[in-house]
Amino acid sequence: MSYEYLLHILTHSLVFIYLLNQKLKLTLFNIFVIPYFLIFGIGFYFYVEEYPYDNFTSVRNLAALNISLCSIFIFLGKLIFQISFPSNKTSAKIIANAQRIINKWLLISLSIFVALVLVLALFVYGGLDAIKIITASRGQLNPLELKEIRFDSGVHGWVKPVFSYVNTSLSRLFPFLLIGYGTLHNNKYYKWFGYFIIILISLAEISTLHKSTFIYYLLQVIIFYALLKKWKLNTRFMIPVIAIIFTILMGYYAFLTSTDGIISIVGEISSRIVNEPHRCLNEYLKFWPEYQPHRYGMNIRVIHGLFSSQEFEPAFKTVIYQYTDPASPLLGTWPALFIADAWVDFSFFGVIIYSFVFGLMLELLDRYTRNNDDYLAYSLIASLFISVTIPLENSLITAFIGGGIITLPILVWMLIKKKKVRVKG
Predict the structure, then answer these.
(1) Residue 289: cis peptide before it, omega within 30 degrees of 0
(2) What average pLDDT does range 132-158 have in this prediction?
(3) Ordered DSSP codes for 118-172
(4) CA–CA gap between residue 341 and residue 378 (Å, rounded)
(5) What is the rounded distance in angstroms from the CA atom of residue 205 to the CA atom of residue 200?
(6) pLDDT digits (tens, 9 = 90+) for 66-83
(7) Which residue has the higher pLDDT, 23 or 357?
(8) Which of 125, 169, 170, 248 could form a disulfide bond with 404, CB atoms 3.0-4.6 angstroms apart?
(9) CA dihedral defined by 57, 61, 66, 70, rounded to 10 degrees?
């Protein structure tokens, strides 16, 4: 057994001990670490390469090393933040007994903007076209046909870039804020508006034809409602919820594709969860620097735009273009762990720095939400529930900006009036 595998086993044994100690405690850090551990910790040893190549063993050793470094420095980032900024339990108790006041007119204005974008995108600019096609086909589509529909249909026109950001970021926050505000002030109109936006987002997620996004959003809604009602989010609560979500996912998958039988559906879902992330990460590690030199920041669109006159080509497209067969499973979505892009740009140094920054950011967000026990904190936790898992299959910058890990906390801060009042009792 190579030293890379030994390091991987040791590192993720420690991660497992950490998770056992946490007992499914709901923090943004744990929301990332749990699926990360299942996919890249345990799942690492269940990966099966369908298209063997000569240097597969060396690539897997490199993957084991990079995943271990990722795990180590994510936890190190969390630890350094805790040491540098120790939690003040006294102030946390004071904040927990206080109710923050928000600018309701700013909340209403931004919520109307979000709803308007969603309505225009779905009902005017083709957002529901894919659902119409799928419904007409009665689900009798193979994966390639489904992929073609996904690329050929969908939102178009001027609203498309606005919709993309609103749907992946802003729309996750504002319905929860509306429902929370309406619940606190016993205002049914705010709650109805929030439910209306939730319905619009659900339609938007279903219309993407991605088999998991709607399920993830449903889980976000459940988490927010549970926090708002102060249910105990322990193992007894989470296991039935996960079982129900997985059952819905299988039904949704069966509706979208021509896959028959429960065993076949479970096999497809398992392959997507376990095999795809490892296969995609392997491709990055195999391609750089063997066939191309590291990009030293040029894989970041903004930096590329400042220092290069050539057309920007993200790393995942560079890899995909090596496979021209349209039926190849290597085309389509590309769910690579965030360290893949870090590796492309800065090799091991990128993996270390990106992981450290991400761990530090997760602890920062957890400190903020832990020290504030109100619907604003609940809304932020629920809206970031999916955002913090984006790095499992996309770049860190995409998660920070597009996913709202940085932008949503700033929005919450902007909504808060700089005054706190105590709540009696």
Answers:
(1) yes
(2) 60
(3) HHHHHHTSSTTHHHHHHHHHTT---HHHHHHHHHHSS--STHHHHHHHIIIIIHH
(4) 31
(5) 9
(6) 999 999 999 999 999 999
(7) 357
(8) 169
(9) 120
